[in-house]
Amino acid sequence: MDFDLTSEQQLLQDSVRRFIDRAYTFEARAALLKGGRNGSAGNWSLFAENGWLMAALPEAYDGLGGTLMETAIIAQQMGRGLVIEPYLGCAVLAAQTVVAGGTAAQKEALLPMLAAGSLRIALAYSEPASRGLPEPASLRAERDGDHYVLHGTKSLVLGAVGAHAFIVSALVPGTQGITLLLVEAGTPGLHRRALPLHDGSWVEELTLDGVRVAAQAVLGEPGRGLAALRAGLASGTVALCAELIGVMEKTIELTAEYLKTRQQFGVPIGSFQALQHRIADMAAEMEVARSMLHAALASLTNDDAATQQQVLSAAKMLIGRAAKFVCGQGIQLHGGIGMTEEYTVGHYYKRAVVADLLLGSSDSHEAACAAALQAGLRAPAG
Questions:
Q1: Which of 95, 111, 122, 173 could tie 160 with a disulfide, CB 3.0–4.6 Å?
Q2: pLDDT tens digits, one per residue of 121-180
């Protein structure tokens, strides 16, 4: 797989980078955090106008027909600015789940509005027992004539604040597998609780107490939602990993600049060999993580489903841990100032810590990798 950017991809990267550098400064982001829970409506409209929300959506539904590479390009640049608008939750996780699992009529109804930014859908799949993975699911959707009645709870719903609807994963008694249902935000029986995360972003916990939705609300077919859910989560995992590459890039840049300007004993501390070694270690970790992201992108293009899941878990585990290491070292090299709320580098560490827990923690994905390896070893040869 060729990872050199095409001219169109380079233009896409440059456009997002310019926006981050000019309009998404640390001070601008801090003002957004004080002003609300889901960023700026103006920024979201700008994302749509620039084509960033439609980059990886099919051309038949008002998208640009791009691939996961375009998603990764956008997410990486947004990671550099610690963007709080729900690009990951709404434009990637939910949108790609609709692409993978929706019927033609559902895609025609939903995707153009998602591309235009006029509709926000969040993916509500995570439960406390699932630890960010798509299974197990315990929320029930019981058939009642032409409707389904939903009972259960979903946690850590990304992009939920301000969302107009939710894609909810559920078990339907009498069927095998997971069913995905579209639930409008104002449906009676749906209770939403906004929760702040350590990095300043917000998620919601959903409690569904007798929520009734029409049978037409099923995304795709009953009992066959797991493949679509995995596809959406695969895109989301790649986007989150790419975001963390951007987080590491910016942390290293901030740290290198600080080492050049901070003086001790009359010289910049960047002249001390021990500190040069530490920032070299940070750069090495980032490049290993970048290579792992490329491996995940290649696997999603070339490998079977089982191999894809194993490579994605390995990428999420390795990149999440690398980001925490790099950002933690950034704080260390800044000294006490790196711990203050008013200084930038600590916020990148907070994002790395939160991102490591989203979409399955590094520990959960390490366990998934181990289970897949053990299953492969136990399988009969030939």
A1: 122
A2: 999 999 988 888 898 899 999 999 999 999 999 999 999 999 999 999 999 998 889 999
Cα 225 to Cα 212: distance, rounded to the nearest angstrom: 19
Sign of CA dihedral 74, 65, 99, 134: negative
Q: Tokens 């600015």 map to which residue?
A: 81
Helices 345-357, 226-261: crossing angle, 10 deg rounding: 160
The pTM score is 0.95
Contact at 8 Å (CB) between 338 and 294? Answer: no
Q: What is the mean pLDDT of residues 243-253?
A: 98
What domains does the chain contain, in order, with CATH numbers?
Answer: 7-118 (1.10.540.10), 123-217 (2.40.110.10), 226-377 (1.20.140.10)
Query: Coil, strand or helix: which one is 69?
Result: helix
Alpha-carbon torsion, ordered 310, 311, 312, 317, to 10 deg: 90
Q: Where are the alpha helices (DSSP H) in the chain?
A: 7-23, 26-35, 41-49, 68-81, 95-101, 104-116, 226-261, 273-302, 305-334, 345-357, 362-378
